[in-house]
Design goal:
Length: about 325
């Protein structure tokens, strides 16, 4: 089962209830060519297996929690250690693997919902989640909301991989230009856990390969899988991606403090795209607005813990236009 929404400007989105997944986003570039600009699997079974999380909603907690050890109000909870000894993206039974309820489906809007029981993948609290996806003009808007009956942690995002040239053989994103208006980033070790000390493990990007403020071709940071901290607060532009050939640009907006940038270096060709090509390294770049990695272990990181009576909210948007 798939759900389609579209706008008069020709931006069309296909979603799957499995994983609240964005399976395709069709956009027409300034060259007049219509392209699907996100990676999608040919075999629907690959979505359930969670290979690389293509287009999926990841949660209950996106990114990594060190050693799968979660402390909430002094109580320790043990989570799955599903990535090199760390907890990643909610565990193997995370939200990417669940069938979401279709609450509403209109021409330009979809609402999906999910209930995650207390103890699922080790997390405390029963969590009720909603996702609204809507299309207006040249923009796709996503809004996540969540409420809980006990203190827990929440960090939700969409894990789409973008290739603004479309799914073409031999075309990858290393000649795309990416800019991120971030003065700071989070250094991590070889398993993706922050290495900085104490309350503020983040450092200035100046003089590092992660200074993307002026824009850089992705082949200059091809191994990036890091969290950058876009300047400012509230809903703002956190990234801009420009295609090499199609005359297409993507503006990513979010109200979250972090943006995980992953250039797809570990995509290994073991799965096949909807166009019939192996999904190989650098086939797409993931731009994932979220909280920084291992935020529950960082005192004062803010926003990681959700309590009864509170509402989690994450707004993000993709706006397409000429390069």
């Amino acid at each position: 089962m798939s759900l389609r929404i579209g706008s008069r400007d020709g931006v069309e989105v296909e979603l799957l209830p499995l994983g609240a997944t964005v399976r395709s986003v069709w956009v027409t570039g300034s060259d007049g060519v219509r392209r699907d600009v996100v990676l999608g699997y040919a075999d629907p079974a690959d979505y359930r297996a969670g290979h690389d999380y293509l287009g999926a909603t990841v949660g209950r907690y996106a990114n990594r929690i060190a050693a799968g050890r979660l402390l909430v109000d002094g109580v320790e909870h043990r989570l799955a250690r599903n990535d090199r000894g760390q907890h990643l993206h909610g565990g193997p039974g995370g939200f990417h693997s669940r069938i979401w309820e279709v609450v509403a489906h209109e021409r330009h809007r979809v609402r999906l919902a999910l209930e995650s029981p207390a103890g699922e993948e080790g997390f405390p609290g029963r969590l009720r989640v909603e996702l609204d996806v809507s299309v207006a003009g040249a923009s796709v808007a996503l809004e996540y909301r969540a409420e809980t009956d006990a203190a827990t942690v929440v960090n939700l995002t969409n894990h789409s991989y973008f290739n603004l040239d479309g799914d073409l053989p031999g075309r990858d994103v290393r000649d795309h230009v990416l800019s991120v208006p971030a003065s700071r980033y989070t250094p991590v070790d070889d398993v993706g856990i922050p290495t900085g000390p104490g309350r503020d493990p983040d450092v200035e990007v100046a003089g590092t390969p992660f200074d993307l403020r002026a824009g850089i071709r992705l082949d200059g940071v091809a191994d990036i899988d890091h969290d950058l901290l876009p300047d400012g607060a509230g809903l703002r532009e956190v990234a801009r991606l420009i295609s090499s050939a199609g005359g297409l640009a993507l503006s990513v907006r979010s109200d979250q403090p972090g943006l995980q940038v992953y250039a797809g270096s570990k995509l290994d060709g073991s799965t096949t795209s909807r166009a019939g090509h192996p999904i190989t390294a650098y086939a797409g770049v993931a731009l994932e607005p979220q909280l920084p990695p291992d935020s529950p272990s960082r005192p004062g990181s803010g926003g990681a813990v959700l309590r009864p009576g509170e509402r989690y909210r994450h707004r993000m948007a993709w706006r397409f236009g000429p390069a």
